[in-house]
Structure formats: C-alpha cells, structure tokens
Amino acid sequence: MEDVNQFPAVERRRNPAVPSDQRVKGEIAVFQELGKALTSSLQLDQVLRTIMEKIDEFLRPDNWSLLLLDEAKQELYFELAVGKASQALKDVRIKMGQGIAGWVAQHGETVVVPDTTKDTRFFAKVDEKTKTETQSIVAVPVRFRDTCLGVIELINCMGPDGFDPRDLKLLEALSDFAAIALENARHVKKIHELTITDDCTSLYNARHMGFILETEIYRSQRYNYEFSIVFIDLDHFKQVNDTHGHLVGSRLLAEIGNALKEHCRLIDFAFRYGGDEFVILLPQTSKENALNVARRLHKLVREGTWLVPEGLNIKLTPSVGVASYPVDSRTKEGLLHLADEAMYLVKNTKRDSVAAANIGILPNVATAESAG
Prior knowledge:
Blueprint: E1 2-3, H1 20-40, H2 44-59, E2 63-70, E3 75-82, E4 93-95, H3 99-107, E5 111-113, H4 125-130, E6 137-144, E7 147-155, H5 165-196, H6 206-223, E8 227-234, H7 237-244, H8 246-262, E9 269-274, E10 277-283, H9 287-303, E11 318-325, H10 332-347, E12 353-356, E13 360-361, H11 368-371
Parallel strand pairs: 1-3, 11-12
Antiparallel strand pairs: 2-3, 2-7, 3-4, 5-6, 6-7, 8-10, 8-11, 9-10, 12-13
C-alpha cells in the first residue's frame, strides 16, 4: 500500500458552502484534469494521486481509502489510504461481505452511514487496529461495467446536515475515473505480459530473455555476483511431431516447460528459446552449482513420462549445456554462444547428457544408455 498521508494537519471537516458557480468551475476543472491524466498517461499512480487530491480538496474526510479486490482470495486490501490511520491499514484485509466496505463490494451499491453505531454492518475491528473512532462512513463501489474492482471509503466526512447529494455525485464520478484507470492498468499489464511470454509454453520468450540477461549482467557487475545459464534441447523432438502431430508436440513443450519452471527457484527465470529449446537463467549461481542444477533438470526430463493423461506416455531425453558469468564470458552474446555450443557438443556426439563451457561433456551424468 502506498503511504500518501502527505497533506497538512488541518481539521478535516466540511468546508463552508462553496458558491455554486465556483463549485461548478471547480468540478469542471477536476474532470478536465482527470481526463487529461487518463489520456496522457497510462500510469495508474498518477491518476489515483489526482483522485486522492480532489477527494481531499472537495470532501475533507478525516480519513479516506481506496480498497482493491484481491480476486483470488476474495478480500479487499488498502491500496491507498490518507489520514492519521493510514499506516495501520497496510496489513488489514476485509473479506467480501464483511463490514460496510465488504458489503459495498459484494452488492455494488453506494452506502451512506451517518451513524456507525446504528448500522450492523459496521466492522469495529478496523477501528481497534487503527485506534480511531469512525462515526460516519460513505462508501462507493469502484466498478468497471459489471465488475467491482474495489471500494472508495470516506470516514467522518459528514456535516450536521448529512452528506450533500452533490458531493455524492462527485464521489461516484471520481470512482468511475478510478475504475477506468484500474482497467487501463490491467490492459497495459496484460499487453506487456503478451509481449514477453511465449504463446505455447507460457514461459518468457527469447526477446525478454535478452532484456533479462542484460539486466543480470549489469547487476552482477555492480554487486560482484556470479550467475549461470542452462540450455536444454529435447533430443529427437521431431519424431514426436512426425508421429503424433504438431498439436501434441505443442502440448508436450508446454508440459515440459511448466515442469522446468516448477523445479526452479523463485529468483530463477525460465524461457522458451525457440523450437524445442529452453533456457534457464540462474542468478547468483556459480558454475559448480549450476552444473548440479543442470544434472537435476536433465534427470527430470529424461526420467519423466509425458502426456500421461492423453494416454501417450512419451519418453525423451535432453541435451544440456551450461555457461557462467564471469568465468566463461562477461557479455550476453558470449554466454549465449558458449551455452549453446556446450549443448550442441552433447547433441552432436551421444546426446542425453550435460556439457559445460570450457569443460566439455560431464563424465558422471547418468544417461538412458548407462541406466539400461
């Protein structure tokens, strides 16, 4: 959650009534500014910050927050919070249907509660955690079409005459802008994922591998780290396509790619390099340790039985090559060439084994031939 409690410590109560013409001009300026932010930038934080500032300027709540929906867990979490209690809300999560915010998210309806002591939906545990006293709440859903993305919630913003209907209209309009910004951000993220992801395996693609390699070289130079790359090529993969067809071949690549990824650490990167070749990037990993990883991945592929649910029970072997930074090369091109060369050393001799740059084929790798 971004901490945006940056406004002057002033009494956050309703301002005296603003002359209608001045109010109209102010609202028009708000929408112009938000419209400009939405069209000139796809940066979510810029739009949300503008919305945050306008809520504070026009509505003056004690505290206000933007809660977003974690779809997987069906919980609301505090993405933005302004006011004295903002820090205490960082780790708070509210289940769908729980409290007023949870009710609004579940039902997609605006709620105005002048007195929280008279509303059974009020979730007092948030006050206990934040050590504040919530007297009134205004909560509006942040919706895009029929999907609730979150809730904007204002605390203690009502005057003696309640919450001005015009203010509510403004707040609902601001929530619409927030919804558009959130949806734009989702689309940008999805487009970015599509540009760096291989369609067949859902691993990162070769284009993204180049970027990550450059980043890893820079980081390793700066902090004096080692790292390694592992090339994996599936032996006789063409026979799978010739025997079972290209659709089965694609499913096999996806299954093996997923297995390779699952056997990596969280800091590792798995790529489909092209055809039936995969690359694993191992940050902060010496050549010796990378060879151990290569042996394990070789064993994983060779001893696995693939596409079992389809009744195909395919067996195959891999040829594996390893190169490391900085012992083998200090450039992206050099590392890729040496790892690829080591892999082809295996592929052009006995296949089904592991080789390392400047070392050759490893003598102690179990193969299908020796195992038999």
